[in-house]
Amino acid sequence: MKCIFCGGSTGKKDVIFHYEDDHKYLFVENVPAEVCNSCGGKTYSLYS
Ligand SMILES: [Zn+2]
After folding, report:
1. Per the domain annotation, does 5 fall within a domain?
2. Which of 8, 24, 31, 42 has its CA 20 to 30 A from that of 18?
3. How far does residue 23's CA lie from ligand 1's centre (Å)?
4. Domain total for the chain?
């Protein structure tokens, strides 16, 4: 698929997903994501 940030090509990779807001902190290891080869931007499969 294409990177949503720069339009570059992405590859599948397991990454660490972390999310934070005022009251919550979420940390999940080995989350499958598409990682951009150009800018390193991550698109999580969780969102698709
Ligand atoms: Zn990119």
Report:
1. no
2. 8
3. 30
4. 1
pLDDT surpassing 80 at residue 8: yes
Spacing, Cα 42 to ligand 1 middle (Å): 8
Q: Which residues contact 8 (CB under 8 A, 6 or more apart)?
A: 2, 36, 37, 38, 39
pLDDT band at 45 (very low <50, low <70, confident <90, very high): low
CA of 41 to the centre of ligand 1 (A): 5
C-alpha of residue 36 to centroid of ligand 1, in Å: 5
In the sheet that 10-20 helps form, which strands lie side by side, from edge to edge?
10-20, 25-36, 42-44
Ligand 1 centroid to Cα of residue 2, in Å, is 8
